[in-house]
Amino acid sequence: MLVNTDGDILVNLRDDDPRIIFPNQWSLIGGHVEEGEHPDEGLVREVEEEIGYRLTDYHPLATFFDGADVRHLYLVPIDVPIEDLVLGEGQAIRYIDPARALTDLDLCVTGRRCIEVYLRHLEFQAYVHGRG
After folding, report:
1. What b/e readout covers 98-123, taking b as 16+ CB neighbours within 10 angstroms?
2. Backbone dihedral angles phi then psi of residue 93, each to the nearest 5 degrees
3. What would the pLDDT profile of 42-99 be if each residue is shown by its tens digit?
4. Where are the beta strands (DSSP E) in 25-112?
5. Exposed end of the chain (fewer CB within 10 Å): N or C?
6. Are 3 and 93 spatial neighbours (Cβ–Cβ below 8 Å)?
7. In terms of Cα–Cα distance, which of 116, 90, 121 is closest to 103?
8. CB 108 within 8 A of CB 27
9. Is 37 a residue whose pLDDT tops 90?
10. Alpha-carbon distance 113 to 92, whole Å?
C-alpha cells in the first residue's frame, strides 16, 4: 500500500493477458516472494521492478492467510510524482483516494481486500488519536 503525502494510494492496471491472474483489473503494486526471499526483500524487489522506485521506508500492516498462500501487506510512504515513476509491469499506474478506488475502479479481489484493510487501519488510527 504505497501512500503519497495527499493520502492517495498507488494502484496499477494489470496487463490484459488472459494467462495471468486478474487480467485487465486494477490492483496494488506487489507480487510473489521468491524462494528463500524474506517478504521485506520481496517487497523492495517488486516495487523496483514494477515502478522503478527503490524503497527505503516501509511498515508491515497485515498478513493474510489464503489457503496455502501467505500474503503480506505493507504501508509504504511515497513522495514521488506519478510522472517520475517508471512503469515496468502492467498498463498504467495512478494515485487515487482509497475510498474512491473501491467505488470507481474494477479492482481485483486481493486489491480490494487490501484497500479495505487499509481503510479500517485509518479508522482505528483516528479512533486511537481521538481518545488521547
Report:
1. beebeeebebbebbbbbbeebeeeee
2. -130, 155
3. 999 999 999 999 999 999 999 988 788 889 999 999 999 999 999 999 999 999 999 9
4. 26-28, 59-66, 69-77, 92-96
5. C
6. no
7. 116
8. yes
9. yes
10. 20
pLDDT at 67: 83
CB within 8 Å of 112: residues ≥ 6 apart:
102
With cell 527503490, the residue in question is 54
Assign 132 a pLDDT band (cuts: 50, 70, 90): low
Distance CA 132, CA 34 (A): 42
The backbone torsions φ and ψ at residue 45, rounded to the nearest 5 degrees and listed phi first, read -65, -50
Residues recorded for the chain: 132
Q: How far is CA 9 from the centre of its chain?
A: 7
3-state class (DSSP) for residue 20: coil
Q: Could you give the CA distance from residue 85 to residue 76 in angstroms, rounded to a whole number?
A: 15
At 63, list the grid cell.
498478513
